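A quick aside before the break. I want you to see a complete sequence-to-structure record at least once, exactly as it would be stored in a machine-readable document. Don't worry about memorizing anything.
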Amino acid sequence: MDSQLTAYITLVSVSGIFNVFLGLYVLYRRREIPGSRTFILYMTALSIYSFAYAFSLASDTLWKVKLWTVVEYIGMPFSAPLGLMIILRYLGWKTTRWQTAALFVIPSITLLMVATNDYHHMFYKVIQIKEGMSLPYLDIEIGEWYIVHGIFTSSSLLAATVLLLGRWRQTRKSYRPQLATLIFGQLLPMVTAFLYLIGLTPAGIDPVPMVMCVTSALYIWAILSTKMLTVIPIAKETIFDSMREGVIVLDAANRLSDYNHAVGRMIPSLGPTLIGKTLDEVWNVLTGSPYPFAHRPDGRAEELVWTTDGAEQIYQVRYSPLLHRNGDAAGGLLMFINVTELKRLQRELEHQAYYDGLTQILNRSQFISRSRTMLEECRRNGQPFTVVLFDVDYFKRVNDNYGHETGDKLLVHVVDVCKRKIPPDTLFARYGGEEFVLALPSTLQEGFAIAERLRQALVSEPLIASGEEIAVTSSFGVAEAESGRNDALSALLRQADEALYASKRDGRNRVTPYRAPSLLRS
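That is the input. The structure line, written in tokens, reads:
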């Protein structure tokens, strides 16, 4: 056998051996390597391609050459899409089953075309051994499907190379050796194939399986030294752009450097044209005013209310400084967390804790808490303080005659009437059952006047329920905190309660001020 041919076969065989080694290594470490199945299939395809081409070079008849060419194409056309899938996985991109299947349509047709070429000559119009040459070089004239196959293969290699090159600037230096290896592994076969097609390589010899020896050796070095495939850099799309929290990146001059998809959805008017502007300039464009918060290095959150498409959203905004390794300021991150639903639930819980569920006025516990505070303030300021306690007359009769649903409507009706007649800042609460209470920074006489106004309003506005008119009357008791005394709120409420029951004893539907026993005796 010619020594030159022997050298070619040796190089191709070494490529195949390297590919088998890589496939077995990844098979052994498959639990540690993401996407190991795809890489094993990739190495298998390249091994079949390399070994079959070596046997093709050693063939001495056209029939054997054609046989090993068919075997070559069991691996070769599938290697390009498999390589592209490895690159997509490396970059953090996922493909669906349909997309994966689509990548192998043309390679499958190519294998069929090569296997049946003698019947249609659409892949090779002519394939024959050159006469008068010491080596079994092939004389080939390509057909239509060979062009389709070539375009697809080159496109797959080119797409993988472009994707990897586009990630270069975003990749940390520690990961660049493995990135460079992957780029070279895609670029070298593509360039070699192009040189082969334009006739700049030895006539009749396909140099691609030979250069695979170089790329496979590089893959072995990268896997063993830089842990390629085992340690894969997390792509920006995987972590930055898939975060639920919005992130704005600022440089050392407080200028907008980047932002992720989440904050783009939170603030739709934030666009690429604003990159390079200071944060205050960006906020002026968005809102007409500078950025409202100071950067807090301690990470404390600020609350931002933002309206998008008429819907109010609430965001927690936190600032985190970014530092170089030497400690110098590199910029900062603004993180936006949507707390709208949390705030809504918080408000609902607070409302349930503070307000009566039926009438939506203060409940008893909140009234007592706030009234104590008001009483203390009135005492400090020398102001009078009065409570008005009242209940609905014959409320049980309404429940018995009309049902509890109508009774509830009656209580709501009483509250609606009273709220229209009292000052808006008055402490007004449901004290229990059909009992209500007011706290006023006023004298006994003023409290009496307000209570009388409420009594008359209730009488004049009966409840209309189920087509019937239900009369509403109430009995009131009014008590004032005596100046110079430190009576507790509970004592004042007991006094108002005594006055209320005095109103009931005297015939209901009346207002009774509390009189101390000493005053009654005098």
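Two observations worth writing down. The radius of gyration is 43 Å. DSSP finds 19 helices and 14 strands in the chain. We'll return to this after the break.
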